[in-house]
Amino acid sequence: MFRGRAPRKGFALLAGAAAVALVPGAALAQDQEVADLDADEMPLETEQQDRGNVIVVTATKREQTLQETPISVSVTSGETLEQAQIRDVLDLQTVTPSLRVSQLQTSSASTFIIRGFGNGDNNLGIEPSVGVFIDGVFRSRSAAALSDLPNVQRIEVLNGPQSTLFGKNASAGVISVVTRPPQFEFGGSVEAVYGNFDTVVLKGDITGPITDTVAFSLDGSYQRRDGYADIVNLDEKQNDRNRYAVRGQLLFEPNPDFTIRAMADYSKIDEVCCQVGTLVAGPAAAAITALGGQFSLPSDFFEYEAFLNQVPTNEVENYGGSVQIEYSTGPLTFTSITAYRELRNAFTSDIDFTSLDVANEVRDQAVDTFTQEFRITSDFDGPLNFLLGGFYFDESITQDSRIVNGSQIRDFFEILGGANPVAVITGQPTLFNGLEAAFGFPQESIFNTPLLTQENFAVDNKAYSIFGTIDFEPIDGLVFTVGGNYTDDSKDFSLSQTSFDPLAQVNFVDAFITQATAANPGLPTVTSRAQFQALPAPVQQSLLAAATNPGVNPLLGLAAFQFQPPFLNVPNAVEPGETNDDKFTYLLRVAYQIIPEVNVYASYATGFKASSINLSRDSRPLSTDFVAGPRGSTFAAPDSPIINAGLALPNLSSGSRFAGPEDTTVYEIGLKAQLDGVSFNLALFDQTIEGFQSLAFTGTGFALRNAGEQSVKGFELSSTIQPADPLVFTFAMTYLDPLFDSFPGSVLGDLTGETPAGIPEFAIAASATYTHEFGVSGNRLIGRIDYNHESNTDINNGLPTFNAALGNTQIFRREVNLVNTSLTLALDNGLEVGAYARNLLNDQFITTVFDGVAQAGTVLGYPSQPRTYGGVVRFKF
């Protein structure tokens, strides 16, 4: 499809926040200073009051409704998660319009996006802009937040930067998962699900007292599903589910003022993921076919068929524990949360996505994280109250990865280089044999080493922050809030890579100059930059002009095969391999209760995220440290720190070792109203991130760049209507008007003034829930239907390889229209029987697209998940 750029919308629109959560339905509620402080505390209690559908938060010893709290947040209740069969955060986006979740080539590669901002997918060196907290513990990578958690009390999605309520800064927003603590009354539940694709889900939990002061809980879950996609030539399924999780908790409560909650959990994912289809078959398709290879056809994109030479596997182990201590004395409450977690992620992937044995990637990653948080909160009767906290973060990351050359990679590249397919197949001497002879390489060595590359990356990250807020209420209903966060973040990193292919070790410009001077008796043979620079300037210019002219130097056309050149390891004499950032961010807010049912607020907040490291083969020196000569020449490179230190390698280029910090500012005004049977919430915002860390796949690597400035204006609107006791309607809509205010250095060129793609203008989440009660027996029949819509939008701003050749004109688009439904019979004896369907109408759309690996002109993409449905039996006791 072709892109037609619409003018930037005016910002004279009212804007919305989330509606107040109802017991029967998807809860969309405005955030809360209180609710979020308690998201990581003990038993966060919510209850229905006589005032109707109002949730009251009482865990901070200050009773306050979500309707009274002046921050934008969407809340999804545990009951909604059960009814809609939402099992993890990937499905959460269907009921939360400000949130998008993107899953890529493995089960563990997911990106969380709020208000159009999000990153961190597929590169462990990049901290996500959206932070995920589970029971107050920061999960630093998305793979650590994907397990199925039973006993979820609610999930809160906080929109915009959060720094004064969380020690760990999140520049775009927060997903906070709150689970139920152990209870002093014996109880539990078991659940079994069976659905299409042989889906089996088993869940269970049990809780109760050990003594009068000690309670326990134990829960677990298991998911298995056949893949809904076929690897045709291997007769294997992919996009399956195979994961389980267990968790144990102890709650010590010797007296009402002192509690200790200890938790330990373990989860594992072992899946075959993910289905990739062809959208455009480029010129490389002929080479694939000539060698007997197969690939999925563009016309069959939604047939969920693939052709691979190896089954892609992904194993994720995620485990850890935390201890949360709370002590109250008078008006003060002291809270400590100590946590240690480990994440192990390993995958093997066929990166060319064809049945040819071209290349496979193997990656092993480990993340070890220790966090410590302390907080003091007050509950004075007077006009002043405060929160003061400290947070410490210590994380180590290691990654060992490699690209394995396939048995057909040399033949494939020979044909792409122009060789006759018959000559290649019959083993006749061809282009690469000639190059090996010319450069003195062993015969059959180009693209014939066991490995193409091997990498070892490591990052040690230490950070601390001091944060807090002060609330001043001079008169009843009028509250002024000032908050701040000072963060100091340091990272030490080491990057090393071995590139084994001999062809990548040669710069064709410099090689031409060496050969030309060797053949000229009047010139010395040039084999180094110093020798070239010593030549007279006219001679340099003449040699360089010939060496960079494709008509004179025929080798230049082969530069495309040098996509894994030698790698300059870090640290080195120029690059110390470290970043150090510190920042003070703050919040200013005023909130006023006009009448008990209507509240308004206005706020200005700033946010921050520290530098991120490019843990990929595309990690290259900054342009301030190195500038290559024409066509990557070292001989003709200007002076730079790396050149002057003698560190330059053949075909070295500048790029991004790391991206600098993100700085966020957001203006927001909001209105919240809670009337009989109706809630209505609006929030209007103008949010800007300077230095947004953009990660783009280039077809052979990943480029990490700082956008100069990216902004989004918009609104979030939500309402809940309960026209009668059994019937509840919810409606939430997010409108986003994004803009690259400044992004001259993107991999697609200057995007300044362009509309950032992948951000739907409108996102809608609506639901209807009807609960029919059978007399006074307590039996209920609950029917629910929800609708999730994302307006038609460009998937991205272009692809570095595919769209560059087309003048950046042909852009793929997506529109989402998902309908989910469920019907549950809940009996008063605790037995529940139900049925569900997700994506009932089998809506099909492209989730994202990317350049084919080493296949210029080929575009690959991920299709959406097909319809799933099943039956549920649940028993609560």
UniProtKB/TrEMBL annotation:
Q: What Gene Ontology terms for biological process does this UniProt record contain?
A: iron ion transport
Question: Coiled-coil annotation: which residues?
Answer: none
Annotated TonB-dependent receptor plug domain ranges read 66-174
Subcellular location field: Cell outer membrane
Which InterPro entries does the entry mention?
Answer: Beta-barrel_TonB, Beta-barrel_TonB_sf, Plug_dom, TonB-dep_rcpt-like
Which positions carry the signal peptide feature in this UniProt record? Answer: 1-29
Its name, as the record gives it, is TonB-dependent receptor
